[in-house]
UniProtKB/TrEMBL annotation:
It comes from Deinandra increscens subsp. villosa. InterPro entries: Methyltransf_16 (IPR019410), METTL22 (IPR038899), SAM-dependent_MTases_sf (IPR029063). SUPFAM superfamilies: S-adenosyl-L-methionine-dependent methyltransferases. One of its GO terms (molecular function) is protein methyltransferase activity. Pfam families: Methyltransf_16. It comes from the Eukaryota. GO terms for cellular component: nucleus. This is Protein N-lysine methyltransferase METTL21A.
Length: 248
């Protein structure tokens, strides 16, 4: 292990200790991949498969992002009348970056510092490949769900607030569901943004999580509707897009 790198994982047996540094698990051999959603083609850096023990799920593009991006690319009228969005759990950024083709400003967020590095690189890559006159503001910010200080910092930098909240395949751990809805609720309650909605691409992997997402949304005073025609098979799983708003 490098001297400058503190041991991150210490596995103890009775008479043995193994110290492994973070870099032991980290795979950052990203490859440029091309994604096509309707008539939109995006090139992004990502991994093709998960390969670590750390919370680096965001290094690859998930089925929920494909579901949401294909839906939005083919039904872009859904985004008409909206100009700003914040994405939660952006990973490599494929959803927020696609949405920047339809909106004026998109803020992509994630809590993982390694994921934020590749997210920022993908934003640069996208900006360098787009027509400079399209002038959409794209940025990346650190945001841990449930962390109001981080969210308030973002809202201070963007005092006009956000018209849309986006999320693709962000329900993996049950423990993250309540703080995620805390953040969503705070965003839906922004002053002057009564029309703000949370567009969530949900991929079903456990019945318990299916029920928990709906229960937590309702428990947070939100209404949750399935977007007509959005339910479909994706990567041998069932996906659906939910439209989530404050209860009237
Ligand atoms: C399964 S990946 C989905 C990534 C991307 N949306 C996609 O569909 O390709 C979940 C993402 O949420 C992020 N994430 C997980 N827990 C989080 C939390 N508590 N706060 C903020 N982001 C989180 C992860 O770092 C990861 O990028």
């Amino acid at each position: 292990m490098l001297e400058s790198e503190p041991p991150l994982v210490v596995e103890s047996d009775d008479d043995d200790t193994v110290c492994l540094g973070e870099s032991f698990f980290l795979n950052d051999s990203y490859e440029l991949a091309t994604f096509t959603f309707g008539s939109h083609v995006l090139q992004l850096l990502c991994l093709q498969s998960a390969s670590t023990d750390f919370d680096l799920t965001g290094q690859l593009v998930w089925p929920g992002a494909r579901l949401l991006n294909e839906y939005l690319a083919n039904n872009s009228e859904l985004l008409q009348g909206y100009s700003t969005a914040i994405e939660l759990g952006s990973g490599v950024g494929v959803t927020g970056i696609l949405c920047s083709r339809f909106l004026r400003e998109v803020v992509l967020t994630d809590h993982n510092d390694e994921v934020l590095k590749i997210l920022k690189k993908n934003i640069e890559l996208h900006e360098s490949s787009e027509n400079p006159s399209s002038c959409v503001a794209l940025s990346a910010e650190k945001l841990e769900w449930g962390n109001s200080d981080q969210l308030n910092n973002i809202l201070q930098k963007h005092p006009e607030g956000f018209d849309l909240v986006l999320g693709a395949d962000i329900y993996i751990l049950q423990i993250s569901v309540p703080p995620l809805f805390d953040t969503v609720k705070q965003l839906l309650c922004q002053q002057g943004k009564e029309r703000c909605r949370f567009i969530l691409a949900y991929v079903s992997r456990s019945k318990m999580m299916d029920a928990m997402v709906i229960k937590e949304a309702i428990g947070h005073g939100l209404q949750i509707h399935e977007v007509d025609g959005s339910r479909r098979a994706i990567s041998n799983l069932e996906g659906v897009i939910y439209d989530i708003t404050l209860q009237l």
